[in-house]
Design brief:
Number of strands: 7
Strand order of the largest sheet: 1-2-3-4
Helix content: under 10%
Distance between the termini: 25 Å
Shape: globular
Radius of gyration: 12 Å
Structural class: mainly beta
């Protein structure tokens, strides 16, 4: 589990290879990041600017995810 530097997004990974991005203000999932070959997400982190989440899995792979952060 990791918070984006600005605290607006929480990233959580599961044992099925999925990571979820939650909006901390609304408590809603804003994105599901899926690695179908994963044996489970073991770590999550954000870049300094919060624009790029990273995940690591049980297979020993690391991923950088490109996401769109829209502001209302």
């Amino acid at each position: 589990m990791a918070f984006a530097p600005d605290g607006t997004t929480l990233a959580v990974g599961d044992q099925n290879g999925r990571s979820y991005l939650w909006d901390t203000a609304t408590n809603k999932i804003t994105a599901t990041l899926t690695d179908s070959a994963s044996q489970g997400v073991t770590s999550v982190a954000f870049s300094k600017n919060g624009a790029t989440p990273a995940t690591g899995d049980q297979n020993g792979h690391a991923y950088l995810w490109l996401i769109s952060r829209r502001k209302p």
